[in-house]
Every structure is written in C-alpha cells, then in structure tokens.
Design goal:
The complex is a heterotrimer of chains A (375), B (378) and C (422).
Chain A lengths: L2 H4 L2 H11 L2 H24 L1 H32 L6 H18 L5 H5 L5 H32 L7 H19 L10 E2 L8 E5 L2 E4 L11 E4 H23 L1 H11 L1 H6 L4 H26 L2 E2 L5 H14 L4 H22 L4 H15 L14
Antiparallel strand pairs in A: 1-5, 2-3, 2-4
Helix pairs in contact in A: 3-4, 4-9, 4-12, 4-13, 4-14, 5-7, 5-8, 5-12, 5-13, 7-12, 9-10, 9-12, 10-12, 13-14, 13-15, 14-15
Chain B lengths: L1 H18 L9 E8 L6 H20 L7 E8 L4 H13 L5 E3 L4 H14 L2 E4 L19 E3 L4 H14 L4 E7 L3 H16 L3 E8 L7 H10 L3 E3 L4 H13 L5 E4 L17 E4 L8 H14 L5 H20 L4 H9 L3 E3 L2 E5 L5 E2 L2 E7 L2 E8 L2
Parallel strand pairs in B: 1-2, 1-3, 3-4, 4-5, 6-7, 6-8, 8-9, 9-10
Antiparallel strand pairs in B: 10-14, 11-12, 12-13, 14-15
Helix pairs in contact in B: 2-10, 3-4, 5-6, 10-11
Chain C lengths: L6 H22 L5 H26 L7 H22 L3 H25 L6 H36 L2 H31 L4 H20 L25 H19 L2 H11 L1 H6 L4 H27 L13 H10 L4 H22 L8 H15 L40
Classes of the chains: A mainly alpha (375), B alpha/beta (378), C mainly alpha (422).
C-alpha cells in the first residue's frame, strides 16, 4: 500500500527509539532530575537541616528494617506473605509493655545484684524483657503456623494468604477485647530514659530538658543508636543462621524444593516451624524497640509498620536479608525526605511511587535474585 | 456439593428467620439506640461513648425512667465508617423500632445516618460529630431531627487562638491529620482567628492517623522557632507528638482541643500544654463531681471527653422526651429545640442549626496534673 | 437470523429474573426492609467488583490488590457527574468526563495499533506515549466540554426530571467504569511486566495512592465538591435493586461470553503457564492487559453503583485494609469460579453486616470482628479451594479443564497453582 514507500525512513528512527528504550528512560531521568534538583537545592540552602532529616530517615529506616528482616526471611523460605507478622509484632510490643509496666521485669538485676552499675543493670534487664517477648512471639507464631497454615500446605498458595489475613484480623480484634489487651491507646513505659545528644562544631553535648537546639547542630538520641545496633546485630545473626548453620542449610533446601528436601531426610514441617519461630522472634524484638522509639502500644499498631516493612522487603528484593535492610533504609529516607521537602499529604503516595519506579527498573527488587518465579 | 447446598440452605433459613422476626413494638419501654464504633481502628472512642451513654440511661432508670417507662438501651457497632453505620442505623430503626438514637462518634459515619434519621423521623443526637453538615442538609437548611452535643469546629479553634494570643504568643505552627475532619476543622479556624488577631502562622504540616514517626515535621517545627505548636488531635496522637517533640528539641507550647481530654493523655509528653474542654475537673458544680464519681465507681477509670459527651447527649435526649411528655419523635425534636438543660459540660441550649450553645474552659497540663487555666464564654 | 438460545442461557436468565422479581416483591411488600435492601445491594456491588478480580486473578493469574483503587475511581467520578447534575443542574461533569473517556479511549486504541507494529517496544516507553496522549486529550476535553455543556443542559432539562436523572446516572456509571478501565490500562502497561507478588505490591501501592489523593481531593486535586476527608454529600440515592441486578447480569453475561471465546482460552492459558502460552504464539502481554482492563472496568462500574447506594462517599471506604475484601470473597467462593464469587459476595454481605449484627447477643457487639475472622479461618481450613472450588452453574460452565494441580516443580512459582507452599 501507500505507506510502504515511507517505510525505509521511519524504522531507523523508531529503531533508535526502541533499541535504546529512549522514551521510557527519558521519563525516568526527568523524574530523577526533578527530585535531585529539589533535594540538592534544599541541601545548599540549609545543610544542617538536611543532614538532620537524613538522620531522622535513617532512624525510621532501621525501625522498618527490624520488622522487614522477619518478613523477608519467612517469605524467602516458605513463600507466604505472612500478613499476621505485623500482629505478632503487636503481641511482642504488648508483652514487653506488661513485662515492664506490670511486672517490672527490667529491674530484676538491680534487685538481685544491687552492686551493679545502673547502666549495666538496666541493660541486662532490658535484654531479659526483649528475650521474653521474642520467646512469647515465637510460641504464638508456632501455634498460628500449626493451626492456620500447616493444614493448607498443599492447597493453593492464596488460601494460606487468606488465612493469614484471617489470623491477622483475629489477633487484632481479639486483642482489642477488654480482658485480653485493651481497645485503648496505652502509653508505653520505657525501661530507660531518652538522652538526646547535640553534635556541632563545638563537639558533642547532651540536650537539656526544654532547651532549644542552637544553630548548625544536628541531634540524635540513644534510642537511634540502640535501634541501629540491634538491627545490624539481628541482620548478622540471621545471615549466620541461614547461611552457616545446619538448620539454615535445611531452610534453604526447603525453600528450593520441598519434595526433594524431604527425600533427603529433612523434616520439612519442623524446619518450617523453626522458620516461623525465628521470624516471629525478630518481630517480637522489633515490637519492643518500636514501642521504645514511639512510646505507645495499641492493638492496631502492627498493621501500618507491617505493611511498610513488607514494602521495604519487596523493594530490597524479597527473600534477600541484606535487601531488607537496604529497602528499609530507602523507605525511611523516602518517607522522611518527602515529608520534609516535597509534600506531607503525599508522603505515602510518594513512598509507593518510588517503590513502583524501582520495581520497573529492577523487577525483583534491588537485591532480588533473577526470577525464581514463572516469568 | 453437600456442603454447598447445606450452606446455601442455612443462609436462606437464617435470612428468613431474621428478616421475619417481628420487631418488638415498644410496649413497656422506651428504646434508645447507641451507635458507636466498637470495632475498626478506634474502638476505644466507641467504648467510652457507649459507657457514658449507658451510665446516663442507668441513672435515669434508677430515678424511675422517663414518662413512667423504663429506658432500654440498644447498642450497635457502627465502626466509624459510612457503610456499617448505615447498616447499624437501619437495623436499630427497623428491627428494634427505636425512635431515639445517640451517635455516631465520627462525622463520616454520622453524615449518612443523619439522612436516614431525617427520612425515618427518628431523633438523633450525635455526641461528638463536629462536621457542620451533620445537622445540615445539602441545601443548607437544618435537619429537623438531628442534633449534636459537642462544639462545632469554629468555636474551639477560635477559643484556642485567642487564648494563645492572650498569653503573648505571636507565632504558631499547626499540625493536623489530613484524613480527620474534626482535626482539620479546628486547625482551619485556629489559623483564621490567629492570623486575624495579629498572630502569625509560621508553618502547617499534615500527617495521617496511622503515622507514628513525626521526626521529619517536628524537625521543621524546631527549625521554625514557633512559640505555639497547635495539635488539635486526640490524645493518642498528642502523646506521640509530645514525646517526640521533646526529643527533637521543640520548645513550643503545645495546644489542642477537647480530644486531649482523657485519662490516657501522657502528662509528661504534653507537659506545659493547654487545651480547650467542656468542663474542668476542679469544677465544683455537683453534676460534674457526681458524674466523675459515678463513672469512676462503675468503670474504674476517669471519664474522657467522649464519655462525657456520650453522657450529656443521652441526658439531653432524655430531658427532651420528658419535656415533650409523649413518646413521639416529632414532638421530642421540637422540645429539644427549646430545651435548656444543665449538663456536665455546662448549661446547654440549641441554636437554629441544632448546635449546642455552651461555654468552654481552657485547661493546663502541668507537672502530671490537669488544672483550670481560663474560662471562655460562647 | 436468530441463533438458537441454548437451555442453560434460558435457565440462567430466567433464574436471574425470578431472583430479581422475588427479592423486588419482598422489598415492595416491605418484608425486606431498608436494612436488608442495603445489604443485598452492597452484596451485588461486591459481586461485580469480585467478578472483575476473579477475571484478573482467578482466570488470568495476576495477583492484583488494585481493584479497590479502581472501585474508588469509578465511585468518585460517577458521583461527581450526578452531583453536578442534581445540585447545580449542570452537565459539565458529564460532558467533560464523557469526552475524556471517548477521546482517550479512541487514542489508546489507535496508538495500540500503531505501537504494536513496533517490535520490542519496552513498556515504559509505550507508557510515556500513552500518558502524553492522555494528558493532552484530557486538557482538550475540558476546554471542549465547557463549550458543549450548556446546550446539552437545556436538552436534558427539557426531559422530565426523573428520566433525566436516570439517564445521567446510567451514563455516569458507564463513564466511571470506562475511566477506571483507561486508568488501569495506563497503570497496567508498565506494571504488568512485574512478577506475581511484585505486581501485587505495586497494585497495592496504587490503591494507597488513590486513597491519599481522595483524602486531599479538595485541596490537591481541586474538586471542592468532593470535600476531601470530610466526605462527599449530596449524591442522589438512585441505585435500586433493579440497577444492581441489571449490571450484575450484564457483567455475568460479558464474563461468560469472554471466558467461552478463544480470547478466554488464551487468558486461561496465560494463567496455566506463561512460557508455554508464549510458545504457542499467544501475546501474553496483550491478554494480561486486556483482562486487567476488563476487571478494572467492572470495578469502576461497581464503584459507580456503590456511590449512589448511600449517597455519601468517604475516602476511608477505600482504605487499603478493605481492599482485601474482594480478594477474600474471590478465594472464599473459589478461584476461577464465577458462581462461587457471586454466591460468596452475597453471603459475605449477609453474614458480616446482617446475621452477625442480629444474632450476637447484646453486650457482645465488640465480638463481631472476632467471630468473622474465625468463620473465615474455619471455612478456609475446611475448604481450602474455596466454597465452590471449580464448580460452575451450567450457564457459566467451563469446557476447559479445571485448575491443574502441580505438586513439585520448584521452578514454577506462578501464583494460581502452587507447589506446596507455606
């Protein structure tokens, strides 16, 4: 037909556009430049404020990382989006609350060994509380796994997802009953006081109560440090368990091929239970640290952090343990920087837009392994 | 196949049984329905409102009821969401045949049910819905059967703005929840009154009800050096904001509305703050003292603003029924318009748009205690 | 000329008519009061949303959590049209949206023809082209609409008010559906290239973004009548049981005919095995997009109907937590079973809002959401493949084999049929 005459000239230009994926890349580059320009101009106008916001974002990122680690591990091994993870996290926070506010468990070292230095005794006490809530969460998770997930092991995967949602609702609303936890917002009692330090050209000083922050100073608190240390510690421990121990090997085998793993003499059921227990223990630890950072516990508190952490895990490449940390850090920065510099109402929308854009560039997340799923 | 048929039959039978249940006609009792969010994210507000309302009904019954009849309370869960609230409202009107409704707590649930109340000629009094459209039709006329027991947004926002200025503060930073119209309304009117009277708003930031991390916006507050931080939200958000504000070096004085009024308000986090409220706990009027004592005796906790307003709303309704002298919603609505009643939150009359006219107090949070700071007439 | 109508179609249409008449009679006789009436209408609306999701997920295997976002788009756009008509007696909303839907729709179809000739065009570039076209045409439609609206106003006002409102309402629902479909096309184009769970999260993100925009619809988007988080009032309550049934039957007929066509078989083949489907010469991307758009169209239609049930819209209704409801219904009814989806929608509405309200003793109102997940858990444990599994009523019955059960293929991590997971 007529158009055939015009053909020779167009393909070369089209070819150029298509081969290089020019248009799509242009769109992405445009967005990236806009963001960089905005952030860059803010950095130039007020570097201390910018640095402060980055520190805020880091703290939030490490909080998400704590929850994301458990999420990503369970997903990596059993391929279930465990929606109840956020609610196990809530149980962990409540358990630590009861242990601290009702039983004063964190003061036991001071009672038994009165000669210990106060810092050390509170430290040991807090570690006891965290271990307790980790243990209880592990128990809760094993129960959930036995009751709600194990019978569905041979059913379509989505069935287990729906029971996970069911378990999540149940934990929330059962927890909201008066005789279980409470429907109220409860102020969390921190086992230790918050200290805020100011860092400026003059050195490091502690912030006094009611004191304003001088110019050109950034601040951080002991809570941030604890959260960063604990998340990195848990990351290393988790990497060690999955990568170096016997049970970790079994987990990886189960993740790769359940049937063959069973033939190799691996007790698949107990491996999966252990996986859930470890994931839940991480959630328990995260619950307590989250409550220390944002001192309030209530029955609904697990949903949003759970969702954000899950998104962080996806961003980093779900199933990848270092990916969870990186994804969480990106989420933290995205939220804080967009709240600080772009638009607070659109904070969540921006965080999710970033997620979608990252996924378009790296379809299995930043650290995701190349498709283990059906393409 | 068997299970499918069984479930199908079960559903049909259940439908027939429940649908054909004869709604017990109001013989010896007067029924009052209490619609409150008992599930969803904020059941604590619903539970408080319900407890306050139930206490009012119990006290009225102890005095012999109203019009010589006992009052029967019917509680329904409306979830603070439009659809379940509509279902709950339809249920109490059609299945339980109630003529009087106390509820809902949230405006977004009260608006759709107020239309049902109007259509079915059922008197409804919302204890806490501040959105003006709850009592107004789309064309701006007043809904005949719908009332409220709380302040509307302009009043509290203006009160706090004037109070802040009278304390000598000139700059304010506003934080508000973009998804909550109560908070948004207070913030808007605070801003308006504050700027009109010579103050300056140095910043405005939003968050959502699920946020727990306020570090980014609080850093901005600290940077702005504002003297007042206006957070007109419920106590749960105030607790989080207050605790983090101290860690971020914010020195501004926190201020807010009646959402702060709760035993669960973290007095350390909100230390030095001020909020407007319906009554002061130091108020010596016997009705206030009695209310606090009775509530404490029954539920073992100090009543919060929601419980107080639930209690007041129910009492206003009972008083209106008493005044009308007959169990007829139209007469009761008319009686309510002309009602003058001494409630816990002060002497109440209704204006042309069915909003209560009553005075407010400003309370101060200091050293773990809440105390009277100033009184404001309407 | 007339094709013989087969018995199953007659049975289905007759059955639907009978169901409609019986319920309508009960409503007219006031046996089913407004309480049940509302629940049944919501059940029907949920059925339409869930059928859309079942197409996307049950038949095509795309794990989408974005259905609720499209439902919101349909609801708000339809509501805006009828709001402007009933309150301002103006058709500008109707005309502008109609123009947008038509122009963008045509441009998408035309561009699709053009772009599909280019081999190896990446999704993101194609998306950029469509996006530019859509934005340009939308701006043009707004300008054009301002010119066209006044004469149409006069035309509609000449009609009796009831008729005019009904016409506007039907158009509004259809436009809402089409708008949702077009947005889903734009969004789906790049995102459908993602793997199952990643696609799920991206679509969940879409739902959350829509909710945030609706929260700020009066400030950021500039639609003051939507009132943002204060909730939109003044929408006419015109969705009757008739309209719900009408659209439900329409959607069922479309779905059935689609599934029974060669297109339907291609859609199912994508679910069963994408690589094999590709090897058979099936354009996987095309069928994924088609199903996604069609499913979102249904969501948009349902949204338009929902907006006119209670006459009140609030962004909280479109919260992501509720976006799991259609997913629950689809799985509960049985993946890939349309019969099951319809049944489960009504059962879900009746049980959660109806029976649990009436049957729980007083003092136990807080237990409603404790009992609901327990029921859900028990049902899933008893019937892991959903209530209806693969069962279909004769009218909808599949000629194709049911879901295949794969037991041990670690390489196939698609979403529908899994190896032993959990």
């Amino acid at each position: 037909m007529n158009s055939s005459k015009a053909v020779p000239s167009t393909p070369s230009f089209l070819d150029f556009l298509v081969r290089r994926k020019i248009l799509g890349l242009l769109l992405l580059i445009l967005i990236l430049l806009l963001v960089l320009w905005k952030l860059g101009s803010e950095l130039v106008t007020n570097p201390t404020l910018f640095l402060q916001q980055v520190i805020n974002g880091l703290q939030l990122g490490f909080v998400y990382a704590l929850i994301a680690l458990g999420y990503t591990m369970v997903y990596g091994i059993v391929r279930l989006i465990n929606f109840a993870h956020g609610d196990v996290f809530m149980v962990g926070a409540f358990m630590s609350y009861y242990a601290i506010a009702r039983v004063q468990l964190h003061t036991w070292p001071a009672k038994v060994f009165p000669n210990l230095s106060p810092g050390l005794s509170i430290g040991i006490g807090s570690i006891t509380v965290i271990l307790l809530s980790m243990a209880i969460c592990a128990l809760v998770a094993i129960t959930i796994e036995r009751v709600a997930y194990k019978p569905l092991r041979n059913a379509p995967r989505i069935s287990a997802l729906i029971t996970a949602i069911g378990v999540s609702f149940f934990l929330e609303y059962f927890g909201a009953l008066n005789f279980v936890f409470s429907p109220n917002f409860i102020t969390y009692k921190r086992p230790f006081d918050v200290t805020t330090w100011m860092v400026s050209a003059q050195g490091v000083q502690a912030l006094q109560k009611g004191q304003a922050i001088p110019e050109k100073t950034v601040i951080f608190s002991n809570i941030s440090i604890i959260i960063v240390v604990v998340s990195i510690l848990l990351l290393v421990v988790l990497q060690y368990i999955v990568g170096k121990t016997k049970i970790g090997k079994a987990m990886r085998a189960v993740a790769y091929d359940k049937q063959t793993a069973r033939l190799m003499g691996i007790n698949v059921d107990s491996v999966i239970s252990v996986t859930f227990a470890i994931g839940a223990a991480l959630a328990g630890a995260a619950g307590m640290l989250y409550a220390i950072a944002f001192p309030q516990v209530f029955f609904w508190m697990g949903i949003i952090p759970g969702l954000k952490a899950f998104v962080a895990a996806v961003l980093g490449g779900i199933g990848s343990i270092p990916g969870a940390l990186v994804g969480a850090l990106i989420m933290g920065q995205a939220e804080v920087l967009s709240a600080a510099y772009i638009s607070t109402p659109m904070r969540d929308a921006i965080a999710f837009t970033i997620l979608i854009i990252v996924l378009l560039v790296r379809p299995t997340g930043i650290f995701g392994e190349a498709q283990r799923e059906k393409a | 196949m068997k299970t499918r048929v069984a479930i199908f039959v079960l559903l049909i039978v259940a439908l027939l049984v429940t649908a054909c249940q004869p709604g017990a006609a109001g013989g010896g009792t007067i029924k009052i329905a209490i619609l409150a969010p008992l599930s969803g994210p904020v059941p604590t507000f619903g539970v408080s409102t319900r407890d306050g309302a139930l206490l009012a009904i119990e006290e009225a019954n102890a005095k012999g009821g109203v019009l010589g009849k006992k009052i029967e309370a019917i509680v329904a869960d409306s979830q603070c969401t439009p659809d379940p609230a509509v279902n709950a409202m339809n249920k109490v009107i059609e299945q339980d045949k109630v003529h009087y409704v106390v509820g809902e707590v949230c405006s977004k649930a009260s608006i759709p049910i107020s239309e049902i109340a109007e259509k079915n000629k059922v008197v409804m009094i919302s204890p806490t819905s501040t959105n003006p459209t709850v009592t107004l039709n789309a064309d701006g006329s007043t809904k005949k059967y719908v009332f409220r027991a709380c302040f509307i947004d302009p009043f509290q926002g203006t009160v706090m703005a004037k109070f802040a200025l009278s304390k000598g503060y000139k700059t304010a930073f506003i934080l508000f929840d973009q998804g909550n119209d109560y908070v948004r309304g207070l913030a808007e009117f605070f801003e308006k009154a504050f700027t009109e009277n010579g103050g300056q708003i140095v910043g405005k930031e939003t968050y959502t009800a699920q946020d727990t991390d306020f570090s980014a916006i609080l850093t901005k507050v600290a940077e702005s050096k504002a003297e007042v931080l206006f957070v007109p939200d419920y106590y749960n958000i105030v607790n989080l904001v207050g605790a983090q504000a101290k860690e971020k070096g914010v020195t501004a004085v926190m201020m807010g509305g009646d959402g702060w009024d709760s035993a669960d308000l973290d007095k350390n986090a909100a230390n030095g703050g001020f909020f407007s409220n319906h009554y002061s706990p130091e108020d010596t009027r016997p009705i206030v003292q009695q209310w606090v004592a009775n509530y404490q005796k029954k539920y073992n906790s100090v009543p919060d603003a929601l419980a107080t307003l639930g209690y007041d709303a129910t009492n206003l309704l009972i008083a209106a029924i008493e005044k009308a002298g007959v169990d007829d919603p139209t007469k009761v609505a008319e009686a309510m318009e002309k009602l003058e009643y001494e409630a816990v939150s002060g002497k109440v009359t209704f204006d042309a748009q069915h909003n209560p006219i009553k005075s407010a107090v400003v309370l101060a949070v200091k050293d773990g205690k809440v105390s009277f700071a100033a009184s404001v007439a309407p | 000329m007339f094709k013989k109508i087969d018995r199953s179609s007659l049975l289905f249409l007759g059955g639907a008519l009978a169901f409609f008449i019986v319920v309508q009679a009960l409503i007219s006789l006031n046996v089913l009061t407004a309480f049940w009436n509302t629940i049944l209408r919501i059940g029907g609306v949920m059925a339409i949303v869930s059928i859309g999701l079942n197409l996307i997920y049950g038949f095509n295997g795309q794990f989408s959590l974005g259905q609720w976002g499209f439902y919101a788009i349909g609801a708000y756009s339809a509501a805006d049209i009828t709001y402007r008509w009933t309150n301002n007696a103006s058709t500008d909303g109707l005309i502008v949206l109609l123009l947008i839907v038509l122009l963008v729709g045509t441009s998408i179809l035309l561009l699709y023809r053009l772009l599909s000739r280019i081999r190896g065009l990446d999704a993101l570039s194609a998306f950029t082209v469509y996006l530019l076209a859509a934005i340009g045409l939308s701006v043009a439609s707004v300008q054009l609409g301002r010119v066209i609206a006044p004469p149409v106003n006069g035309l509609l006002q000449a009609l009796p008010p009831d008729v005019a409102t009904t016409i506007v309402f039907i158009l509004a629902v259809l436009i809402g559906g089409l708008l949702a479909a077009e947005v889903s096309f734009l969004f789906g184009l790049p995102v459908l290239t993602l793997g199952s769970d990643y696609f799920g999260i991206a679509t969940l993100g879409f739902t959350i973004i829509v909710k945030v925009l609706l929260d700020n619809s009066d400030t950021l988007l500039g639609f003051t009548e939507m009132k943002g988080a204060r909730g939109m009032i003044g929408i006419p309550k015109v969705t009757s049981w008739f309209w719900v049934m009408f659209f439900l039957v329409l959607v069922l007929v479309i779905t059935r005919n689609l599934i029974h066509s060669s297109t339907g078989r291609a859609i199912i083949s994508v679910r069963e095995d994408e690589i094999a489907a590709k090897a058979m010469g099936i354009d996987v991307g095309y069928f994924k997009t088609l199903t996604f758009v069609l499913g979102s169209l249904f969501a948009g239609l349902a949204g338009g109907l929902y907006a006119h049930v209670n006459g009140f819209l609030h962004p909280d209704t479109f919260n992501f937590i509720k976006s799991f409801d259609p997913m629950i219904i689809v799985v509960f009814g049985g993946l890939g079973s349309i019969t099951g989806t319809v049944f489960a929608s009504f059962a879900w509405a009746l049980v959660l809002e109806g029976f649990l309200r009436l049957l729980l003793p007083s003092g136990f109102e807080t237990w409603r959401f404790v009992v609901y997940p327990l029921l859900l858990l028990i049902m899933m444990l008893l019937k892991p493949n959903g209530l209806f599994g693969n069962f279909e009523m004769p009218y909808l019955r599949q000629i194709l084999p049911p879901l295949r059960k794969k037991t041990s293929q670690p390489q196939s991590e698609g979403i529908t049929v899994k190896e032993a997971n959990v």
